[in-house]
Amino acid sequence: MTKATRTQVGIIGAGPAGLFLGQLLHRQGIENVIIDIRSREEIEGTIRAGVLESWTTELMHELGLGERMMQVAHFHSGIALQAGTERHHLDIEELTGGKKVTVYPQHEVLKDLIAARIASGQETHFGVSDTAMHGLQDHPRLSFRRSPESPTETLYCDFIAGCDGSQGPSRQAIEGRTEYSKLYPFGWLGVLVKAPPSYHELIYANHERGFALLSTRSPEIQRLYIQCGPTDNMADYPDELIWQELHTRLATQNGWTLHEGEIFQKSLVGLRSFVTDPMQHGKLFIAGDAAHIVPPTGAKGLNLAVADAVYLYRGLEQFYAGGGCGRLEAYSATALKRIWRAERFSWYMTTMLHRNPQENAFEQRIHLADIDYTVHSRAASQALAENYVGLPLDS
Ligand code: PHB
What are the pLDDT digits (tens) for 90-128? Predict the structure, then answer.
């Protein structure tokens, strides 16, 4: 027997877009069900970037999710931009009229969202299989199995939110879409290290051997990255080589030292930029990585997903309040306007800070001039700062 149930909004994916959307809808009394092919442990254990835009932290507070963030997150007043051995402080807080840099990793945000969702009793199914969408024009419904052995269930809904990441099925369901993409000829090797912090803020470094980034997780655990080749393997990077590259790329001339410690997690990612347009088709709306990817250099991925969730929520809220479909119809155009600005910023930070083997010496000098201009011009540093802490949702 096939089981059939009903909800108002069916959400595919328990990542940032799906979970924020679910909480926003729930607060407004709009019923939703979230399904995800991953287990809760996998979702809560996936390591991603860690910087929240200032409005994202405000939204966490508004949703009653600020408590652990206030205890665990790191709040910095600026970032460091480094070219060769010259390190410059950008006072983000002063440049933005008081906005801080909040380092709170994505999986911590997801833990808070999932705990709140479960506590409020909203229906959530982890580890589902055979997810499919049907009737997207008039009678949307989702089918799935709770486990590979379970019978197929059908979930009838008014709308489907495709928050299923870059590999999920929902983007493929958008007919007539245009996809824009750029691959960068390099990747990032990321490590988690048991060591005390080496610096009081994030350091983004452009070195002739390639980009390096120093970030943090806790007083005992630090997050570091080095630029690597696009097809490099983990076997190419024994721990000694990683430390050697980090020491070389982050070195200054004033005796600053990088604290070493045990490397207990390593990951490799390729860098790419991607946007799909439109982000809706019939009763299906896609959000987050399903619709766009940014390279991690500005740490915009999670924040962009949350912005999509807010725009989609506003459309659904208007519809259920009897205000019509205006905002839902405009969802894609509204979201894409801001997405393209964040794509521009992420591409700009990536291009300025990395060594691109396909570029010549002239182009590399231009990037160093860009860093020099950014750190010495108030207008240029303010432009970077306002993007870094996050552009407003209504601009
Ligand atoms: C991180 O802490 O993982 C991180 C921070 C800043 C970035 C990217 C990643 O731009």
Answer: 999 999 999 999 999 999 999 999 999 999 999 999 999
Q: Any bridge partners for residue 127, and if so which?
A: none
The domain 3-72+102-179+272-355: what is its CATH number? 3.50.50.60
The pLDDT of residue 245: 98
DSSP class per residue in 259-297: PP-EEEEEEEEEEEEEEEE--EETTEEE-GGGTEE--GG
Domain covering 185-268, topology? D-Amino Acid Oxidase; Chain A, domain 2 (3.30.9)
Q: pTM for the whole thing? A: 0.97
Own/partner long-range contacts of 135-140 (Cβ < 8 Å, ≥24 apart): 135/283, 136/160, 136/173, 136/281, 136/282, 136/283, 136/284, 137/282, 137/283, 138/282, 138/283, 140/10, 140/282, 140/283, 140/284
Catalytic, out of 99, 207, 300, 354: 300
d(CA 293, CA 389): 19
* Residue whose CA is at the smallest distance from ligand 1 atom 2: 50
Closest ligand 1 atom to Cα of 49: 3
Residue ranges of domains in the chain: 3-72+102-179+272-355, 185-268
For ligand 1, atom 3, the nearest C-alpha belongs to: 49
**Is ligand 1 within 6 A of the CB of residue 296?**
yes
**Test site for ligand 1: of 81, 215, 352, most ligand atoms within 8 A of the Cβ:** 215
Q: What is the chain's mean pLDDT, rounded?
A: 97
In this structure, the residue with its CA closest to atom 6 of ligand 1 is 299
How far apart are the C-alpha atoms of 135 and 381, rounded to whole Å? 49
289-293: which pairs have CB atoms within 8 A and are 24 or more residues apart? Answer: 289/15, 289/17, 289/165, 289/166, 290/13, 290/17, 290/162, 290/163, 290/164, 290/165, 290/166, 290/168, 290/170, 290/171, 291/171, 291/335, 291/339, 292/339, 292/343, 293/166
